[in-house]
Design brief:
Helix content: 40-55%
Number of strands: 7
Bound molecules: 3'-phosphate-adenosine-5'-phosphate sulfate
Radius of gyration: 19 Å
Number of domains: 1
CATH architecture: 3-Layer(aba) Sandwich
CATH superfamily: P-loop containing nucleotide triphosphate hydrolases
Largest sheet: 4 strands, parallel
Shape: globular
Distance between the termini: 38 Å
Strand content: 5-15%
Number of helices: 19
CATH topology: Rossmann fold
CATH class: Alpha Beta
Strand order of the largest sheet: 5-4-6-7
Length: 333
């Protein structure tokens, strides 16, 4: 049973008040018992998501936002579709690999704004995913407790991706500047992250709840950092998990397709048309290189943007939140 409370709080209010209206909403409600922060729009879709029909041959890619979801989606789709590069080029990732709960995190005014529906922006993404032919690929950022109930009986393959929390937070800040029209300052956004007041927070509960499932045969956990360090190994491991075997030259070609430069210039993935329109309509700087979807793609880029003080706050918070959990040994020093 999910209950909903209004998110009334100075930091959440600050984020809500410092944004361009008409873009994506930020956190307005807290769901219990999970503590999940969502825009109020989401409350209308909880039951439909919980009752969503899961199929055994689905493949789900799940993460906290900005942890490498899109990168993983493209990898998984190509492995699952026998390296159909033509198919991947000719159909937007949003269509091939729908974002289940997107309908619940986009404001109603945006939906009726007549956006190009190629991006499945106006669509009811739950129905869209429901009607896709098998085998389906589905993206979600939902925490364990909000996933469809059938996930736990049908047990489709799930790939969860993690990323260094400081890099994820910095990436989420830039995401908010673009998609949510966030105009507030960086330190207060970071405070909102640390206080778990942003959409899809609480961050550590998200990661820990999936980590606890890692020994299940239908769950694979990859990390952004592993992908950056040795993408061919991650491709091999993921292919094996999906019951596919790839030759080494196929792995090399796929790793090249998934390189940051190639993904950044791939119009089936980078959202450039939609972003151009969003920037125009909402007066965002068209030449700002940080207002892109495939943005920087680096490990430890937080070191450039985060002050030592904010970085220290993240370390203290991480140690506190992971104490006594499955992740304690990683962060106890
Ligand atoms: S979202 O909006 O939650 O689905 O975002 P998500 O896809 O999870 O994360 C976006 C970040 O992933 C980076 N990215 C990549 N990095 C390296 N190589 C490749 N190919 C790649 N594709 C996407 C993207 O740039 C975002 O990270 P930042 O740090 O903002 O650059």
């Amino acid at each position: 049973m999910v209950t909903i409370e209004e998110l009334k709080d100075p930091v959440a209010d600050y984020v809500r008040e410092h944004r361009i209206p008409g873009l994506m909403p930020v956190g307005d409600i807290r769901l219990q018992p999970s503590g999940l922060i969502m825009p109020k729009e989401f409350s209308r879709y909880i039951d439909r998501i919980k009752n969503f029909q899961v199929r055994p041959d689905d493949v789900w890619v799940i993460s906290y936002p900005k942890c490498g979801t899109t990168w993983t989606q493209e990898m998984v789709w190509l492995i699952g579709n026998d390296l159909d590069y033509e198919g991947s080029k000719n159909k937007l990732l949003f269509q091939r690999f729908p974002f289940l709960e997107a309908v619940g995190i986009i404001s109603d005014s945006q939906k009726s704004g007549g956006d190009d529906d190629e991006w499945v922006f106006n669509a009811d993404t739950i129905s869209y995913a429901d009607e896709l032919p098998s085998p389906r690929c589905i993206k979600s950022h939902l925490p364990v407790s909000l996933l469809p109930d059938q996930i736990w009986t049908v047990k489709p393959k799930i790939i969860y991706v993690t990323r260094n929390v400081k890099d994820a937070a910095v990436s989420y800040y830039h995401h908010h500047r673009l998609w949510n029209g966030y105009t507030g300052v960086f330190p207060l956004f970071m405070q909102a992250f640390l206080e778990d007041k942003l959409v899809y927070s609480p961050y550590w509960d998200h990661v820990i709840e999936y980590k606890k499932l890692e020994s299940e045969p239908y769950i694979l956990i990859n990390s952004y950092e592993e992908m950056k360090k040795d993408l061919p190994s991650v491709i091999r491991k993921t292919a094996k998990f999906l019951g596919k075997s790839l030759k080494s030259d196929e792995i090399d070609v796929l790793a090249d397709h998934l390189s940051f430069e190639k993904m950044k210039s791939n119009s089936a993935i980078n959202g450039e048309e939609l972003i151009k329109e969003v920037k125009q309509r909402h007066g965002l700087d068209p030449s700002d290189p940080t207002l892109t979807f495939i943005r920087k793609g680096e490990v430890d880029s937080w070191k450039v943007e985060m002050s030592p003080d904010v970085a220290r706050q993240f370390d203290i918070w991480t140690k506190k939140m992971t104490k006594g959990t499955i992740l304690e040994s990683l962060y106890s020093n």
